[in-house]
């Protein structure tokens, strides 16, 4: 493996990057790009999925991932990205083996539905199992060298509306087990997720609903003393026109006649230039309105006081080449 380089980023010292966001904002795509960016330069990063949607497989154009850590991509300059799609039932079996030496019995319990029953009556236990598998990967060391197995772990986490409850696992299981292995396990997980080595990032669009959910999520994190990360503003489109033109169009001071003159200068017939100029002026005005709304949402996000990172709208969609483009953008802007 290549040399693991030290680099100056906004999240120096963070080893667990939790990525949340409202549905439709591109959360999984951004998590995948962040994993590639963090792995660049010969590092080893684990990308974890916890919702069972096989989203990681889709963005990397791979078959469905099994419940095991496997290499899925080579990052720029030789780093490696591994992936793990966590299955709560399999995590339960790991848990029984780890704490009770009962993996064989756990398989029998699975067949009669006890595992489903346990996680149904205690939903917090499911979150402990899933987050516990992630925190174990963060803490894991190579027994031969004593070094961390992964330089960083990226979690493609649940949506913004559920993220605080998902991460706040100790409180969720407090009534289930006040002592014993389950409580000890939950406390270990809590220790990882509340440490300075963790950052909870949000993915948003410059639209009112995802921005408001991001603000609400950050406020909840701060209230529960969970570590707030950055804001990834996804699918950002260029303004496309100079600021004076946009401002004039927004305030309805755009000179349609001047536009018509310009169209005629290109050789367009006078009878066509006028109607086309009016149609273009309407489109420019609508575009200016959208840009102003996006700028307003950007100012709102900036008021939160955490780093924001613009990620461009990919013209060809979030294919594999697009992931590497986003990863490069994240590195350039200091996010990884």
From TrEMBL:
One matching Pfam family: ArsA_ATPase
Gene3D superfamilies registered for this protein in UniProt: P-loop containing nucleotide triphosphate hydrolases (3.40.50.300)
Alphabetized InterPro entries for the sequence: ArsA/GET3_ATPase-like, ATPase_ArsA/GET3, P-loop_NTPase
ArsA/GET3 Anion-transporting ATPase-like domain residues: 16-173
TM region(s), chain numbering: none
MF (Gene Ontology): ATP binding; ATP hydrolysis activity
PANTHER family for the chain: ARSENICAL PUMP-DRIVING ATPASE ARSENITE-TRANSLOCATING ATPASE, ATPASE RV3679-RELATED
Name recorded for this polypeptide: ATPase
């Amino acid at each position: 493996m290549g040399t693991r380089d030290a680099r100056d980023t906004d999240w120096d010292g963070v080893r667990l990057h939790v990525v949340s966001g409202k549905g439709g904002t591109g959360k999984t795509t951004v998590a995948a790009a962040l994993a590639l960016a963090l792995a660049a330069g010969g590092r080893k990063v684990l990308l974890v999925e916890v919702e069972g949607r096989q989203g990681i497989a889709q963005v990397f154009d791979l078959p469905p991932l099994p419940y095991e850590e496997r290499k899925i991509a080579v990052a720029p300059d030789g780093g490696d990205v591994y992936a793990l799609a966590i299955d709560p039932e399999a995590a339960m079996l790991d848990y029984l083996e780890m704490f009770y030496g009962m993996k064989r019995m756990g398989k029998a319990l699975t067949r009669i539905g006890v595992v489903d029953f346990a996680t149904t009556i205690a939903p917090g236990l499911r979150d402990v199992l899933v987050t516990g598998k992630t925190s174990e990967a963060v803490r894991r060391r190579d027994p031969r060298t004593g070094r961390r197995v992964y330089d960083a772990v990226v979690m493609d986490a649940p949506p913004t509306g559920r993220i605080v409850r998902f991460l706040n696992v100790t409180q969720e299981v407090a009534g289930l087990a006040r002592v014993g292995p389950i409580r000890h396990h939950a406390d270990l997980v809590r220790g990882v997720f509340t440490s300075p080595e963790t950052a909870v990032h949000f993915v948003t669009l410059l639209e009112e609903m995802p921005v408001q959910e991001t603000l609400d999520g950050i406020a909840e994190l701060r209230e529960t003393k969970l570590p707030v990360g950055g804001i990834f503003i996804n699918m950002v489109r260029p303004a496309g026109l100079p600021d004076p033109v946009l401002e004039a169009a927004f305030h309805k001071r755009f000179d349609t006649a001047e536009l018509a003159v310009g169209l005629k200068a290109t050789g367009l017939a006078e009878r066509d230039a006028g109607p086309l100029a009016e149609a273009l002026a309407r489109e420019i005005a609508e575009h200016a309105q959208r840009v102003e709304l996006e700028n307003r949402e950007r100012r709102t996000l900036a008021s939160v006081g955490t780093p924001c990172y613009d990620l461009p709208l990919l013209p060809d969609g979030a294919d594999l080449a697009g992931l590497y483009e986003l990863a490069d953008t994240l590195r350039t802007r200091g996010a990884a």
